[in-house]
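User: quick one
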Amino acid sequence: MFTFTLKKTDKFTRARLGEIETPHGKVATPVFMTIGTAGAVKAITPEEVKQLGGQMILGNTYHLHLRPGEDTIAKHGGLHQFINFDGPILTDSGGYQVFSLSKINKVTFDGIRFQSHLDGEEIYLTPEKSIEIQQKLGADIIMCLDECAPYPCDPKYAEQAVARTTAWAKLCKRAHKTRKQALFGIVQGSVYPDLRERSAKELLEFDFPGYAIGGLAVGENTGTMYDMVEITAPLLPADKPRYLMGVGKPENILEAVARGIDMFDCVLPTRNARHGYLYTSHGVIHIKNAEYKEDTRPLDKNCDCPVCASYTRSYLRHIFMADEPLAQRLLTIHNLRFYLKLMQDIRFHLQDGTFKDFYQKTKEKLKPRPPKPKKVKRK
Amino acid sequence: MFTFTLKKTDKFTRARLGEIETPHGKVATPVFMTIGTAGAVKAITPEEVKQLGGQMILGNTYHLHLRPGEDTIAKHGGLHQFINFDGPILTDSGGYQVFSLSKINKVTFDGIRFQSHLDGEEIYLTPEKSIEIQQKLGADIIMCLDECAPYPCDPKYAEQAVARTTAWAKLCKRAHKTRKQALFGIVQGSVYPDLRERSAKELLEFDFPGYAIGGLAVGENTGTMYDMVEITAPLLPADKPRYLMGVGKPENILEAVARGIDMFDCVLPTRNARHGYLYTSHGVIHIKNAEYKEDTRPLDKNCDCPVCASYTRSYLRHIFMADEPLAQRLLTIHNLRFYLKLMQDIRFHLQDGTFKDFYQKTKEKLKPRPPKPKKVKRK
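Assistant: Done. Structure below.
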């Protein structure tokens, strides 16, 4: 019930145009998945995600396991029904959050022992347990439990993490029973090309319907991230989707698409919106800045989102400063549309055969600019 | 540009069906105005207010004066453009918030000196200043500056407050220049029938196009509130709208409608939503309660709101407990729809000639029920 169709590969870059088919519909790739950590996209409804061009939502197994628990969600018929989204959903394995959110965690060969960040309860997450939870959640794509090594990480530890990731992938594959769900493997190997190669090679044995590249965007510099993607993507089968986990800034996504990545997820558009950090076609706007106090222009005159159609910078700054709950929502809508429009543009230019040109122009536009000195003082 | 048409008076009660016409459209009365204190209805858009059956939004002059300031709003062309609502808007005078929000306030015969609750800045609000601000805000209905006496209040002080309210009404009327805006007077007099009568009589001299009853729902018991409404409403002209400020619970609104009130505003539906206190056709639900953890039913099976159509109690409880910003919004939509549906039902039955029956049945349904002892412990 899961297929991936590679529709086109760009002539000048490694960028790919494709289509994933799931029990909950089709997804045009490259795709950016909107994050709905605890069963809700922050401040907006799944309906709005769709209206903004979103195709897919990502749920976090760690959060959903702790609260409300997979059994409560299963009682609704699964995560789709629980959150009221009939499009495709992906859940991660829970492993990453264990490393990033739990103060105490201990990796053993069988799994990870950790404390809930909510109430300190001790939990033991094994590959089998992760799959069991994800089966109850019922997402269309589920992920193997992996060990996301920290950065920096010495080669010896990184090698152990790769070995564990392979061993766990085997156990996940064995535990995976629901054919309606596609189980993806995750390539680890930190910033070491030989380990990335080994991890990919070992996982290919299991013939997963899709592969993720994990353990990046964890602190390494951007160039290293691009290098790792450049090395790893070609090791993965051309006829299966490739998912770069947790990435990233708009420019990171563009670069990774050019290196052959099909799927992305990141908290940046939604989290940055809540902090008043807004993406526009002419650079980033910090809506708090006093310069927007009386600015009656839209956030971005080139943006087609409903917020730019109806509200001024002055209004958005006012409700942001006044801590109005509506501010989070309106700013989230704008930022998410920026990301989803970027993905639509990428797909359009891939289809059109003009991706290389688009890539080069957009790269220039997305280049971080030095802040204007006057504005910096005001912040 | 402002008219009120009294369409029907109920045969058995004093309830009235009417229509207000403003430069921004018509309003069927009795009407509940949705509160958009600082230029935003908490967590929802003006578009959603309309979709839920809302006809009118109330803005608070005190809040908007402090932030972002009436000049910023005037630069947008007024509050309608600023908040993106093309329906009728009412602004209050700012007086009430001075009394309720400012730690230090001093009433003189000319106005009120107070400190901003935001930054402690000292501000002097006079009748002329209140009108000047409200003219810049550009609402369809604006209010005279009045003195809302505290409760309890001795007759002597209440009498002084009435005298000041009359004096200020005169100054407001003189300062009021914009004919596009209708200026309403506010009857004060605390819980003293003779003072209510005197206040009404004095204000009638100014021939305002509408009258409010102020100084109620400030701590007096419900019976007293109803008595004051019952005494005051008939003192006001039948051909002008009557607005009971800051009221109230659904049952208060119903009772006040039966006593001849046409307009209402209250923070309860929106504020209670944010605290997980939800109105349903079978009583109030505290969504935090553990009993809803696995409850896959809608909040209210008799409710026609989009939240009841799409989400379970279990889901709403989960996102409320997880502090998801979406919770505030969905719960606000539900509660606001409850209020606006009540108003639609009231108008329907007034039109239909079946208000008395509806009033008696709904009164029974809205009666506060004793909490179930078991549930109270869990809270």
